[in-house]
């Protein structure tokens, strides 16, 4: 068979010269499996160009999206949790906190800041799911409470961006107390006539849903976000029945009257600016405090 000869096709690269593709260059949508460059994915504010799936993002990304030129003053940035219960599961709570702080670069599961959105002053509290599942502990409640107080003192609107698995079990009753504390602070904000906008993102569950996340003058959400108290698996096992299609999605929650509207992340900044302009008190529109931005 001398007439047959195998011919290599394509580019032949010696093994020692082959290189792995660097991580972080490409994004694959978990819903429709479309592949795009990370640069394009970021340009679309971490949404899929084909199916509009909204990826989970954290406070750093939301602050960059919302605040003009990504300039803001962070509030109470060094507040950290103690260990009042000396809690130990697979590891001691202080060890878990230290490891999570190191891996995430965060002090706890929420960051609060004052900046400007299209020139409008705004106080924002944004939760980070990568910090122990965005769980609500004493620091989360305290930072939100202090941010609300800051908004009251300076006559500013307040935006809460929720993303949480619920109360932090390592702080037990101390976590549950934050539900009452934050709700009471929001009542004072309402008495002061200042707007509170609550934005629910994927996922917003547990004690966060049962408290400050559902108390907004306007409750808004991103498309496809999971919103509920208990998870769908727990509910299904409890009631012993199949759940409706898209149960606990933001679209389902909107249809049943618990949301005012759903907003695409690419439209978020402008929609918030329109809402704040409509809601803010007259004296705030005349003279707003000028923060020292960084």
TrEMBL record:
It catalyses: N(6)-carboxybiotinyl-L-lysyl-[protein] + acetyl-CoA = N(6)-biotinyl-L-lysyl-[protein] + malonyl-CoA. Binds 1 zinc ion per subunit. SUPFAM superfamilies: ClpP/crotonase. Gene3D superfamilies: 2-enoyl-CoA Hydratase, Chain A, domain 1. InterPro entries: AcCoA_carboxyl_beta, Acetyl_CoA_COase_Trfase_b_su, ClpP/crotonase-like_dom_sf, COA_CT_N. It comes from the Bacteria. Acetyl-CoA carboxylase is a heterohexamer composed of biotin carboxyl carrier protein (AccB), biotin carboxylase (AccC) and two subunits each of ACCase subunit alpha (AccA) and ACCase subunit beta (AccD). This is Acetyl-coenzyme A carboxylase carboxyl transferase subunit beta. It comes from Hymenobacter nitidus.
């Amino acid at each position: 068979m001398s007439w047959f000869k195998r011919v290599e096709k394509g580019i032949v690269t010696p093994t020692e010269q082959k290189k792995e593709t660097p991580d972080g260059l490409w994004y694959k949508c978990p819903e429709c499996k479309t592949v795009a460059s990370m640069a394009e994915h970021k340009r679309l504010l971490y949404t899929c160009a084909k199916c509009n799936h909204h990826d989970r993002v954290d406070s750093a990304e939301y602050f960059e999206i919302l605040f003009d030129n990504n300039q803001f003053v962070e509030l109470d940035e060094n507040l950290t949790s103690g260990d009042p219960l000396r809690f130990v599961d697979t590891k001691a709570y202080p060890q878990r906190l230290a490891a999570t702080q190191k891996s995430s670069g965060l002090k706890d599961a929420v960051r609060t800041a004052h900046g400007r959105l299209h020139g409008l002053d705004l106080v924002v509290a944004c939760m980070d799911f990568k910090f122990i599942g965005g769980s609500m502990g004493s620091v989360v409640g305290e930072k939100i409470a202090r941010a609300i107080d800051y908004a009251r003192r300076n006559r500013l609107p307040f935006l809460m961006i929720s993303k949480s698995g619920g109360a932090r079990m390592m702080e037990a009753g101390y976590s549950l107390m934050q539900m009452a504390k934050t709700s009471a602070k929001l009542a004072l904000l309402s008495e002061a006539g200042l707007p509170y906008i609550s934005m629910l993102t994927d996922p917003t569950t547990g004690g966060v849903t049962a408290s400050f996340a559902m108390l907004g003058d306007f409750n808004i959400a991103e498309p496809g976000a999971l919103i509920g108290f208990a998870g769908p698996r727990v509910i299904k096992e409890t009631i012993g029945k199949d759940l409706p299609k898209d149960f606990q999605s933001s679209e389902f929650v909107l249809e049943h009257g618990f949301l005012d509207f759903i907003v695409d992340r690419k439209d978020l900044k402008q929609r918030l600016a329109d809402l704040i302009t409509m809601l803010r008190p007259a004296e705030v529109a005349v003279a707003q405090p000028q923060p020292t931005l960084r």
